[in-house]
Amino acid sequence: MNNLPNQDKNNLQIINLNGHQISVNIRNYYDQDNLELIDIFRSYPTSSSLSYVVDRSPDYFALCKLQGIDWRLIVAEKEKIFGSILINFDKVFLESKEQNICYTCDLRLDTSVRRVWLADCLMREGIYACREKYGDSANIFTCVLKDNQAGLKKNANLERDNIIKMNKVGEIKTYFFIPFVSKNHFLKFFSG
After folding, report:
1. Greater model confidence, 110 or 175
2. DSSP 8-state symbol, 70
3. Residue among 56, 64, 73 at smallest CA distance from 4
4. 3-class secondary structure, 113
5. What number of H helices and E strands is found in the chain?
6. How confident is residue 42, by pLDDT bands cut at 50, 70 and 90?
7. 171/73 Cα distance (integer angstroms)
8. Other C-beta atoms lying within 10 Å of the C-beta of residue 173
9. Angle in degrees, 0-180, between the axes of helices 118-134 and 149-160, rounded to the nearest 10
10. pLDDT tens digits for range 96-155
11. SS (HEC) of 127-151
12. Domains and CATH numbers, the chain
């Protein structure tokens, strides 16, 4: 599976949850996390204007394996998984030369731990994973919708704390076309 160093690295973080300080374990994934990760992605939509859920069953890790040349999945847990972030490692043509890049994505949190700095903790661990793989000058990309105030604040916090320098690369316009067809037509079309 994932052949990165420090596979069993654990990192305790203290977060404030409903007025109580609790320690949360930030660690690399285990194969047996599959069902919990599927449940998080199915149960908790993203929190922006482009709100969606993704059913990654039966194998949460299948999509991870298709992206990039390598990947690392980091989870946050205390008796159960509260959230995760995926880091893809790849090579791209950037600034007129082939370069290694990292892309942080699929940050997802259980709604009970949103707004308690857990997203910041996961993102920091993701950045450290990028630097562990490609060094301090790693090219790290992330994408945040401009109406996602929590995501923008998370990135501002990372820059404020001198973890990373954020540079806007560009804006992406996304359009979705959803066909309105009858259920019978839909089933007939996709059943061959």
Report:
1. 110
2. E
3. 73
4. helix
5. 5, 6
6. confident
7. 26
8. 4
9. 60
10. 999 999 999 988 888 877 776 788 889 999 999 999 999 998 999 998 888 888 888 889
11. HHHHHHHHCCCCEEEECCCCCCHHH
12. 10-190 (3.40.630.30)
Please give the pLDDT value at position 154: 87
Instruction: Convert the pLDDT of each residue in 4-18 to its tens digit.
Output: 334 445 676 665 555
Residues near 72 by Cβ (< 8 Å), separated by ≥ 6? 2, 4, 28, 86, 87, 89, 129, 133
Long-range contacts of 16-20 (CB under 8 A, 24+ apart): 16/116, 16/117, 17/112, 17/113, 17/116
pLDDT at 168 over 60: yes
**Cβ–Cβ contacts within 10 Å for residue 98, how many?**
8
Q: Which residue has the tokens 């709604």?
A: 111
Both tokens assigned to 28: 């690399």
Assess contact for 82 and 112: CB atoms under 8 A.
Answer: yes
The pLDDT, as a whole number, for residue 16 is: 57
Tokens describing residue 188: 């007939």
Query: For residue 98, what are its two tokens?
Result: 């082939």
